[in-house]
Design a protein that fits this description.
homodimer, Molybdenum Cofactor Biosythetic Enzyme, Chain A, Alpha-Beta Plaits, Maf protein, 5-stranded mixed sheet, 16 helices, 17 strands
């Protein structure tokens, strides 16, 4: 079954919005084993919408459209499809009543234009829209399935998941993906260490993708059903895990802080942080997790030498001798904030986020990250590349990773 | 001049990535007055790439492609185009040498596949790529312009802006957009207050877009040249400014914190913050600005009652009597952090970010934001909707806006 996704809307062609509907629909269709061969975007223009529909009807078995179902003259996907297929439009009185109800709220007025949205091409089925006035249309015609959906993602996505996807034909095989997230090694080193696995691997396939401070491996299995795909993914996952070990820090939608928070919750441990160059991003990341007050007690953003002295009791002599960006100061920050907040762990970060403030000895991107644990104080030195926000982000991921590796060592 | 944008890449059809290149190119072409009529996406498949190219050559004057210029067998945009146009491929020795230089770094090895990237269809011009090994191609053929560019946005975007856009033909009229960013009023109230302007407005057009805590008005002017467009935009901008006043907080790419930082820099003023529910996001936002250590001195993330007492000297009695989420505690946080850091301003934020921790009296989304200024202490109560991260973000924007309005009042 070959599918084509058509989006209509001049705002797409003007670059005012991105065609995220095509990505969403493609991902869901791939998971179901339906091959998408084309994405097409045309403006709100009758002859080009007609051309796009005729082309799709000539080459695809399944056609999904988004947009062009609104009440205005510009909205013409349904009318054009009806014309192309030679089908009359009929009023759907159920939806008409539904709309009259929606418009009965104070401040809303239904105009005759709105009735256009309750029209259905003969033989088509109306798909209700729980988040707007434009219903979708499901039409089967000469062995093809054509589904029209509204453009706004908050309307299209639930409609597709609840009313369209379950009704699409089953396929012989489906695709299922899993993403392994790796940190602590570069893309080249990672590929080297698993080169023989990649070379002999056909199902699941392996696709690496380099991210900021992380490498993602996307494993995609093809199988008769979900169980078979899961078995294939688990097998390969175990092989990769054996090679890459704790460098794999998360899978799929899980993030670094999710993993660290889980470890802290499970072991009932607490943390406090003292940040300089990351400016609060580590505290913000820790506190993005619901219930984080169980493990996160205090964050100090000591952005000047003066506040490092007054808030963290770091000696002016140490700052003068070593400089604020130094291993000694990072360690002192970690130890002091742990002491002040009476937590199990303290993290101290000091560095140069740039773009100014660097020197030959202490360049932009130099960051010291210290971890004060119950039994030891350690520090690592990093040289991060990138812009100010990238350096902040890399430092935070690295700090979380230091804590993760410590917690794994303790529990393992 | 009609343009078509073709993206090739199976990862697009699998929904693994979004076609952001089409949006980027469309926006830049619209600004130049070139009409984009079609976006097309096909996979790494020779016959479908060929079909897409043939169709585009039959209907468009300008064809821009992204992707399919890599070193592997899957990368076939250039080879397919050469075949469709009947042009032989010729080795570009300059680029060959350039590639040999790139691959001479330790850990890199050039394979014979890579040479494929130095081939150019006869009559075509190579466009250098400063961020990767795949150069672009500019080809003029029978009155049409065809430009091939690499897929990764970090390679395509600079190549297009520097090497392609300036060489495209001039048009009779161009489009120029400006975005006004508005906060402190809802979309409906905003539209009401400028309804008569919108109703009579044809050039520039006005398109409102609701964002988290902000409303954007996109003004798009059509004119003979940049000067005419700017004049039209300035005229309408002034009309809207007269109605919406300080609710307009920024234009185009400028953000709320950019504006606040500018005001602080200009008046040489300093700030410290004490955060509870925003968990460091306000400090992080303040410190995203290069040079922010000039105005930002201290951030305290007091995430527990105990640290509010120990770090901010807030009395246990006050916390017990009013609760941590209260106007009195927000004000005390602002006053204390200003005092501790010896800054001109202190900001205190306390609230319930959820999803847990709410009650009928103090629901999720309740946030108090206090501003301690040199001459007064004020506090505002908010009830934000949304998920945990949305509530944090809305609170931070609102806190920055309180400071912005105070600074404007002082300077105005």
């Amino acid at each position: 079954m070959k599918a084509e996704i058509i989006a209509t809307g001049t705002e797409l062609l003007l670059g005012q919005i991105t065609n995220t509907n095509a990505r969403f629909l493609s991902e869901k269709l791939a998971e179901k084993g339906i091959d998408v061969y084309w994405h097409t975007v045309v403006g709100d223009n009758p002859s080009r919408v007609e051309e796009a529909l005729r082309t799709a009807l000539s080459r695809a078995d399944l056609i999904l459209t988004s947009g062009g179902l609104g009440p205005t003259m510009d909205d013409l996907t349904k009318e054009t499809l009806a014309e192309v297929l030679g089908l009359p439009l009929e009023l759907h009185t159920g939806w008409q009543q539904q709309m009259e109800k929606m418009f009965s709220r104070p401040g809303h007025k239904m105009t005759s234009n709105n009735l256009k949205q309750a029209m259905v091409p003969k033989g088509g089925k109306l798909i209700p829209n729980n988040f707007g006035t434009a219903p979708g249309i499901w039409l089967e015609h000469q062995g093809k399935i054509i589904v029209l959906m509204p453009g706004p993602p908050r309307e299209l996505e639930p409609m597709f998941l609840e009313e369209v996807l379950p009704n699409l034909p089953e396929t012989d095989s489906i695709l299922l993906s899993r993403v392994l997230k790796i940190t602590g090694m570069g893309e080249a080193a990672m590929e080297d260490s698993i080169a023989d696995i990649i070379a002999n691997q056909t199902n699941p396939t392996i696709a690496p993708l380099a991210k900021l401070n992380e490498v993602h491996l996307r494993l995609t299995a093809k199988g008769k059903n979900k169980e078979e795909c899961l078995r294939l993914l688990d097998e390969l996952d175990q092989k990769l895990q054996a090679r890459l070990g704790n460098n794999i820090f998360a899978r799929d939608d899980e993030t670094m802080v999710d993993v660290v928070a889980e470890l802290l919750f499970a072991q009932k441990l607490t943390v406090a942080v003292a940040e300089s160059c990351t400016g609060g991003l580590l505290a913000h990341t820790f506190t993005n997790i619901p219930g984080s007050s169980d493990y996160f007690h205090l964050g100090l953003v000591t952005y000047s030498n003066q506040t490092k002295i007054s808030q963290l009791n770091i000696s002016a002599d140490l700052l003068a001798a070593e400089g604020a960006v130094s291993e000694a100061v990072a360690k002192a920050m970690a130890v002091q904030v742990k002491q002040i907040a009476q937590t199990d762990f303290g993290i101290g970060i000091t560095g140069i986020a740039g773009p100014g403030g660097g020197s030959p000895e202490k360049p932009v991107g130099l960051v010291y990250i210290a971890l004060a644990a119950p039994d030891q104080v350690s520090c690592r030195k990093f040289n991060f590349l990138g812009k100010r926000e990238n350096i902040k982000e890399r430092a935070v991921i690295s700090a979380l990773n230091l804590l993760r590796l410590y917690l794994l060592k303790q529990s393992g």
